[in-house]
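Entry for the shared binder. Reason: the reviewer on the internal report wants the predicted structure included alongside the sequence.
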Amino acid sequence: MPTRSFPRFAHGPVLRAVTASEVFGPTLGAAFVRSEAVPQAVTVFSGTAGVDFTQLNPASSSSANQTSITNDTTGEVWWPKGTYVAPSNGFSLKAGQEHRLESPAGGTRSASNTALIDGQNSALYGVQTPASGAAITIRGGLIIRCTNYGIVHSLPNGLTVEDTV
């Protein structure tokens, strides 16, 4: 069986050779990794709302929040905790934006501690990306009760989703 040797790192240990038949990955197993892989906290951008980033409001209508997303010129959109009712085709994100949805660390999230996008069993999606333009990032939040998908992605230049449930 072939072996692989790893190089000696400057001021570091020499790693042992491993055989091709060895299983790579966490030694405590998949169940442990799943139970310990919880989303991290997501917090507001630095700066001033309305100047350095666009701030949505869960008390505003879906169309008012969509207008804020569409008219954003900062590239950064902050979703404070609360419930955002998704429009029928979901919120349409703009190319090049980063969306941060307020969230605590851990898997226990609700509208009282998280920005929650609720499709109310009638919206097709929670959010959707455009078909062209710069990559989009979505961090945090909870997306629930969409009839098709929480996030629908058609952007060829990429989508990053982190710490989103």
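Summary line for the report: Residues 54-162 form one domain.
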